[in-house]
Design brief:
With 151 residues, the protein is of the alpha+beta class. Strand 6 and strand 7 form a beta hairpin. It has one domain: L,D-transpeptidase catalytic domain-like (Beta Barrel), CATH 2.40.440.10. The strands form 2 sheets. Strands 3-2-1-9-4 form a 5-stranded mixed β-sheet, with no helix packed on it. The protein has a 4-stranded mixed β-sheet with strand order 5-6-7-8, with helices on one face. The longest helix has 16 residues. It is globular and about 40 Å long.
Length: 151
């Protein structure tokens, strides 16, 4: 029994001293334009001069087709495009006239989604879906090269 009294404080100390710290959108500071996507909260935040200037719910990738995490930049923008593909888990998709598309990594993009209203929970094949009105605002606000942080 005495051994447990010696071991338990060491275990608790280990967890408190070596615990990893999560980064939240509220802790990010920059003077440049920045878009952050918090996958845990399913929220997107647009930042300028260290302040959040816009926020919206998102639908990021489903469990078998997750949204890529990391630091990116908007590579190119198109006002409207067709998106089609297939997932062995979720089947085929084919959406015409997807509005306000901003690609940030390979085929991953932030774009409007007119085909569902399930924002605030995962629902995509990996892209960051936002309401059409939000995608229009973001498209007009963000320049090519704007930093995008997905976590």
């Amino acid at each position: 029994m005495r051994k447990y009294f010696l071991v338990l404080p060491l275990i608790f100390a280990f967890f408190f001293l070596f615990q990893t710290r999560n980064v939240y959108a509220a802790e990010i500071y920059t003077l440049d334009k920045l878009i952050t996507v918090d996958l845990g909260k399913q929220m997107l935040f647009a930042w300028k001069d260290g302040e959040i200037v816009y926020q919206t719910k998102v639908s990021a990738g489903l469990p078998k087709t997750p949204t890529v995490k990391g630091s990116f930049k908007i590579l190119w923008k198109v006002p409207k495009t067709r998106m089609k593909g297939e997932s062995k888990w979720y089947g085929k998709y084919d959406y015409k006239d997807v509005p306000y598309v901003m690609y940030f990594y390979q085929d991953y993009a932030i774009h409007g989604a007119y085909w569902h209203n399930r924002f605030g929970r995962p629902n995509s094949h990996g892209c960051v879906n936002v309401p059409v009105s939000a995608s229009e605002w973001l498209y007009n606000w963000a320049d090519r090269g704007t930093r995008v942080e997905v976590f």
